[in-house]
């Protein structure tokens, strides 16, 4: 079944790859994006962005200074949020932004990712009615300022205060120390004129913990900082350099009482405090991003896998047997072992990302109706997924980069930037080690509920099941039964690790340690349990997708799922072996199956990444271009380096030439 990416003039190796494809790449892409219509819209947006002169790049971003890159990004963002705003649906916006602007951030990133969601879910009706229409119409730009120079993880110790003044019915917002400055919030430095600022709420001298407040930072007319406000950019970073992550100090800035976000927690004019229905509803914007970043991080890995796979199909280097032409590097088993699991993981993450977004929407609906009972499960799942996916994605992108040899190290590959953006996710929205512990807290409760025979939510239902013997390798040639056997083994392992961690914790408590110190003595094991819980969820989610897929793509998805399961199990072999649930022979069997999967998937590798349906513009990689004509493109790309504007650089003229001249004259 030919892949529809084939076009005349393409690199012949890539064309051959696409001709040997065994499935309909459009069917898989439509399944990935939800429907044929969504796929068509995705293509339409890509084509229209490419054709819009307002989005044209005179030179690639990689060659721009930070200031110029920020400028170009702001210019394009204006086009998106004025000219294009009504041409796309909200759910198409992330694709439009990726396509038009790229992945390093843009002036309205935090406005969309956190400012609007905070206001939507936490502002009371009056404040929402006043501010939301203005924010949605982009009359103002906002961000989410929570992290401080001294505290990011431990929100209980944030130092910024909002002290209620009953006499004027105002909050006084203050930054008491240098390290209490807000530090890191995206788009805070230069773009935003408003922010949701997280402060300790103080009433009558009593600290009621972190709450959110809407604060105007800059004059709406001049954009100058308002009195009492010190604000700016924190400087260059590994990536996200078109984002103005910022600092902010507030010197006793007064805001009206109604600018506290009071949908859940409330302060009445006389200073009476009413707590929310769930203590952590103030943390809702973080759950929003965690729930959405899974999918977007899956897409980052998908891009890297697309670059590495296509490039490995056009790159020829060395021979496997003597004689004949040099081989495509994609034929080396080590190359397949590096790249194919990344393709499978990218699909797995995208599928899980879609499921968790749906779960988030349901939870939000419940909260709107006064029911927060789905929140703990969602918080545990998003915390685990955010941690596992960003780490897995970072490792995967780095594998893809290394698999492209020297050219992978060049910005022309697009891979270094992808890596920088991906690993940012290990830190933001809660450092991974910290978030895994949030998941572990929930697992520990789950273990107890299971012991007590209580009902368990779907994501931890496995904690209540009984383990049988692992049937890996004992299910004959039936792939469906093999998948089930592996999933059951993963369930056993996730359950066993959670129970072991719980017992280790209890043992320390019984030994005399307080709960918290005992916890710190077992967190490595706790986090291990959280990771396996998360990886089990991802495997189950992929399996659900496989079972519901149309027959036209069932076979290739099943091959991919097999590789995914075999790879994950070999990667986690230590956990499978530790309690004797699996034996060495079963791990050998899984490895053998994995190597078979590499061979099975080889003919479909290029087509599997074509089905990610990432346009050349969005991919932004000379090595990953759809037509595979990389060498000429590499030279054309390098010619644009600013060092090539002149043959003899001032740096050479001013320093190197005189040095050589002086040294020559000494002889
Ligand atoms: C154009 C359109 C674009 C659309 C874009 C949409 C999506 C965007 C996708 C990508 C984003 C792109 C760009 C954005 C890039 C970067 C943005 C980054 C932003 C930030 O980083 S914001 C700052 C984030 N900061 C953190 O995450 C801090 C981490 N720390 C914490 O969360 C907490 O301090 C803590 C670790 C959870 C501890 O808090 P604490 O109050 O001490 O609580 P505990 O005692 O540990 O727990 C008590 C109890 O509460 C439960 N809990 C904790 N948190 C939550 C929560 N958020 N929700 C629900 N429940 C929660 C916890 O489980 C405990 O429960 P128990 O039952 O066990 O008691
Ligand atoms: C690209 C980027 C964008 C960001 N955007 C925003 C934004 O828009 N708004 C905003 O408010 N913030 C933002 N942040 C800040 C980010 O949310 C914090 O950096 C993050 O929550 C981690 O907090 P921290 O920096 O205080 O790290 P720390 O907590 O100091 O972590 C340092 C180390 O200590 C460990 N550690 C800390 N506490 C524990 C614990 N309890 N148990 C075990 N280990 C622990 C961590 O695991 C880590 O290894 C952004 C950060 C980045 C990198």
Automatic annotation (TrEMBL):
It holds the Pfam family ACOX. The active site is at 429 (proton acceptor). Keywords: ATP-binding, FAD, Fatty acid metabolism, Flavoprotein, Lipid metabolism, Nucleotide-binding, Oxidoreductase, Peroxisome. It comes from the Eukaryota. Pathway: Lipid metabolism; peroxisomal fatty acid beta-oxidation. It is found in: Peroxisome. GO terms for cellular component: peroxisome. Residues 283-444 form the Acyl-CoA oxidase C-alpha1 domain. FAD binds at residues 147, 186. One of its GO terms (biological process) is fatty acid beta-oxidation using acyl-CoA oxidase. Residues 24-141 form the Acyl-coenzyme A oxidase N-terminal domain. One of its GO terms (molecular function) is acyl-CoA oxidase activity. Residues 483-661 form the Acyl-CoA oxidase C-terminal domain. Its main location: other. Its cofactor is FAD. PANTHER family: ELECTRON TRANSPORT OXIDOREDUCTASE (PTHR10909), PEROXISOMAL ACYL-COENZYME A OXIDASE 1 (PTHR10909:SF250). Belongs to the acyl-CoA oxidase family. This is Acyl-coenzyme A oxidase. It comes from Pristionchus mayeri.
């Amino acid at each position: 079944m030919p892949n529809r990416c084939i076009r005349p003039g393409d690199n012949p190796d890539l064309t051959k790859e696409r001709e040997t494809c065994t499935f309909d790449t459009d069917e898989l892409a439509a399944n990935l994006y939800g429907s044929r219509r969504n796929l068509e819209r995705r293509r339409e947006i890509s084509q229209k962005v490419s054709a819009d002169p307002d989005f044209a790049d005179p030179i690639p971003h990689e060659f721009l200074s930070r200031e110029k890159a920020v400028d170009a990004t702001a210019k394009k963002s204006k086009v998106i949020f004025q000219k294009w705003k009504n041409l796309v649906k909200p759910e198409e916006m992330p694709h439009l932004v990726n396509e038009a602007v790229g992945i390093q951030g843009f002036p309205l990133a935090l406005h969309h990712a956190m400012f609007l969601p905070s206001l939507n879910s936490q502002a009371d009706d009056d404040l929402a009615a006043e501010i939301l229409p203005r924010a949605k119409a982009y009359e103002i730009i906002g961000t989410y300022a929570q992290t401080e120079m001294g505290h990011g993880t431990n929100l209980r110790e944030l130092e910024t205060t909002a002290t209620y003044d009953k006499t004027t019915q105002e909050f006084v917002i203050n930054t008491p120390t240098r390290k209490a400055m807000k530090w890191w919030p995206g788009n805070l430095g230069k773009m935003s004129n408003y922010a949701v600022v997280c402060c300790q709420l103080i009433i009558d001298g009593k600290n009621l913990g972190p709450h959110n407040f809407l604060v105007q930072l800059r004059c709406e007319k001049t954009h100058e900082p308002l009195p009492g406000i010190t604000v700016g950019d924190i400087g260059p970073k590994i990536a996200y350099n078109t984002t103005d992550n910022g600092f902010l100090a507030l010197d006793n800035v007064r805001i009206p009482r109604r600018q506290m976000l009071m949908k859940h927690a409330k302060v009445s004019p006389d200073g009476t405090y009413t707590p929310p229905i769930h203590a952590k509803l103030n943390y809702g914007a973080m759950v929003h991003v965690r729930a959405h970043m899974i999918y977007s991080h899956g897409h980052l890995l998908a891009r890297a896998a697309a670059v590495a796979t296509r490039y490995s199909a056009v790159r020829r280097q060395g021979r496997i047997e003597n004689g004949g032409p040099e081989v495509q590097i994609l034929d080396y088993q080590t190359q397949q072992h590096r790249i194919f699991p990344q393709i499978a993981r990218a699909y797995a993450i995208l599928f899980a990302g879609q499921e968790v977004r749906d779960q988030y929407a349901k939870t939000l609906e419940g909260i709107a109706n006064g029911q927060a009972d789905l929140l703990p499960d969602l918080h545990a799942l998003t915390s685990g997924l955010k941690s596992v996916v960003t780490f897995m994605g970072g490792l995967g992108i780095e594998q893809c980069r290394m698999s492209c040899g020297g050219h992978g190290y060049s910005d022309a590959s697009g891979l270094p930037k992808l890596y920088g953006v991906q690993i940012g996710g290990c830190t933001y929205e809660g450092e991974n080690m910290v978030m895994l512990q949030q998941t572990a807290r929930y697992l520990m409760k789950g273990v107890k509920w299971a012991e007590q025979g209580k009902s368990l939510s779907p994501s931890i239902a496995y904690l209540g099941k009984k383990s049988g013997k692992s049937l890996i390798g004992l299910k004959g040639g039936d792939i469906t039964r093999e998948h089930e056997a592996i999933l059951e083994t993963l369930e056993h392992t996730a359950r066993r690790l959670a129970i072991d961690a719980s017992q280790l914790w209890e043992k320390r408590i019984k030994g005399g340690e307080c709960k918290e110190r005992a916890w710190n003595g077992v967190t490595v094991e706790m986090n291990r349990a959280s990771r396996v819980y998360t990886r089990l969820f991802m495997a189950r989610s992929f399996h659900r997708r496989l079972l519901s897929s149309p027959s036209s793509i069932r076979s290739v998805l099943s091959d991919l799922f097999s590789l995914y399961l075999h790879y994950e199990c070999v990667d986690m072999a230590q956990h499978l072996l530790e309690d004797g649930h699996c034996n060495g022979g079963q791990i050998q069997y899984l490895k053998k199956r994995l190597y078979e999967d590499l061979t099975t998937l080889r003919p479909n590798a290029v087509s599997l990444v074509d089905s990610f349906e990432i346009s050349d513009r969005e991919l932004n990689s000379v090595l990953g271009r759809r037509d595979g004509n990389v060498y000429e493109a590499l030279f054309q790309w390098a010619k644009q380096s600013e060092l090539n504007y002149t043959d003899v650089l001032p740096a050479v003229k001013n320093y190197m030439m005189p040095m050589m001249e002086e040294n020559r004259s000494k002889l």
